[in-house]
Write a structure and sequence with these properties.
By secondary structure, the chain is α+β, with helices and mostly antiparallel strands. Helices cover 18% and strands 34% of the residues. Strands 2-3-4-1-5-8-7-6 form an eight-stranded mixed sheet. A four-stranded mixed sheet has the order 10-9-11-12.
Length: 224
């Protein structure tokens, strides 16, 4: 096991996880922002719109190379033809819905996973423009495919390429300490994560759920 350090998020037992960001879905972005700001004692950083996807977001840094994404429906975009990502259309209240693991080659990641019977989906390109005008671009495996596997416990994969990582411009003062999950079928999910090379503590629970422990101005708290 790798030793736990202040700069390396772990599963609570010292096992390193490859977390890029964790996703806090909300039926209303302003409400989600208010809840996170009250919970953490920090002011979030506005993110931007996801063109054509019907969502927009805000961010909080979780240490170098990691961040919390707060995402909700964007009233300034037409409702998309397909359901919004992360099951946002069905959310009744804000909660952690998914997480992303960083990969230097998401196309290879997806093809290797497919050879092992894990359907991460066809990779795609994404983009959003920050409020300062900088365009961020990335490649990723579709979150909806990962969510179909285990309800958000199995991550989707993302590669930011040469784009500045969003954590660099996100609000600071918060650090990710650990990330863990629950699932009704923990053995199955652990097997999938092992094939993907992901170390994450998964225990039995009534439904898929993520729990992130962070150090913040309010102390050590758990986001769920």
């Amino acid at each position: 096991m790798a030793a736990e350090t202040a700069s390396t998020p772990t599963d609570g037992s010292g096992v390193v996880v490859a977390a890029d960001h964790i996703v806090y879905g909300t039926p209303d972005l302003d409400a989600g922002i208010a809840k996170i700001e009250d919970m953490l004692g920090v002011r979030v950083t506005p993110g931007g719109q996801h063109p054509g996807r019907g969502t927009h977001n805000a961010l909080v840094g979780l240490g170098p190379g990691r961040y919390l994404e707060i995402i909700g429906p964007d009233p300034d975009q037409p409702k998309p033809a397909a359901p919004r990502t992360f099951g946002i259309d069905d959310l009744k209240e804000p909660r952690l819905v998914a997480w992303a693991a960083r990969s230097p080659d998401v196309d290879r990641q997806a093809s290797e996973a497919a050879r092992q019977g894990i359907a991460l989906g066809e990779t795609a390109a994404g983009s959003r423009r920050r409020p300062d005008g900088l365009l961020l671009t990335w490649r990723f495996t579709p979150p909806q495919a990962a969510m179909a596997i285990a309800g958000g416990v199995v991550p989707f994969f993302i590669d930011w390429g040469k784009t500045p990582h969003p954590s660099e411009s996100a609000a600071g003062g918060v650090n990710l300490v650990s990330l863990r999950a629950e699932h009704p079928e923990p053995e199955r999910v652990r097997g999938i994560l092992e094939k993907l090379g992901i170390a994450l503590s998964v225990s039995r629970g009534p439904k898929p759920a993520l729990f992130a422990t962070v150090d913040c101005p309010r102390g050590r708290i758990e986001i769920r």
